Amino acid sequence: TETDLQNVHDLLISIAMEGGKTMLSAEHEFLIAASTKNNTSDLVTKYDSQIEAMVESRTQAAYPHFGFLGEETFKHGTKLLDTPTFVCDPIDGTLNFSKGVPNCAISLALTLNKKPVVGIVYNPFRGDLYTAIKNRGAFLTKISSPSSSTEMQKEKKFKLPLHPIPPPMPSLNTCLIALEWGNQRSGPNWSLRTSVHNTLLTAQSEGGAMCKSIRSNGSAALDFCYVAQGSLDAYWEGGVWIWDVCAGWCILEEAGGMVAGANPGDWEPGLEGRTYFAVRAAKIEEQVGVVEAVWGIMG
Ligand code: IPD
Predict the structure, then answer these.
(1) Model ipTM?
(2) pTM, full prediction
(3) How far are the Cα atoms of 69, 72, 263 from residue 75, in angstroms, in the given order?
(4) EC number(s) on record (predicted)?
(5) Domains and CATH numbers, the chain
């Protein structure tokens, strides 16, 4: 019910604040120790594991019958079910986090029937809290003093609905696009990323390159939120996982954006599809136009 979703949303915000404090507690470690998972760009720190354990225990204590899918405890082959499931990326952008680049976030979501219905993305280094509940809009709340637990009680916040009219986006060449590199350095995903990157920057269209420029911010969750707030026009990536995108997906859709698949023709990507194209423009035709233009250069 609506009340249940509101309660889940409130719980996930409180958990995100606690996770954010843990992330901030590492702020003064110059380089945060990280272990590699599959290769040198696929990392985990003690903070990822600690935050995920806290998220799992708090969500399971409040909702013992709900499922839980988290990046650090995920077992290959586990499938998302129709029943309510918490999806957790304790730190999205672990590589940034480990090097002190303040573009990383805790990303928490609830799915129902394999669709995101609550999304919370919190970057404690900027005090940016993005929140959404399905059919109830997306919001950005600025948290002014997130680092001290006593100040947390009387923090100053302001909340803005994510609905500014994005600037006109008549074609791809007016777009600022995020294209991430993921953590694979070989195989089909890698060749596709490099060739799309290359084509977007080098192919000519009217008056210059095919798009305004490309950014690789290092956090899929925040890329979704930046598209939702109109800072980016689009985000394209293949190879990410459900926990990287689930919360951001809910936020983007509630802000009026759409998610397609990164591969040509995929207008209805599933949460587990691992390839995504997020876009938001004033008009639906513009969103469709940008997706088709990028698919068009993929050959
Ligand atoms: C990563 C980030 C990155 C994306 C990778 C993800 P993690 O998440 O979202 O932007 O390119 O594919 O794995 O591992 O830092 O949670």
Answers:
(1) 0.95
(2) 0.93
(3) 9, 9, 26
(4) 3.1.3.25
(5) 2-161 (3.30.540.10), 172-296 (3.40.190.80)
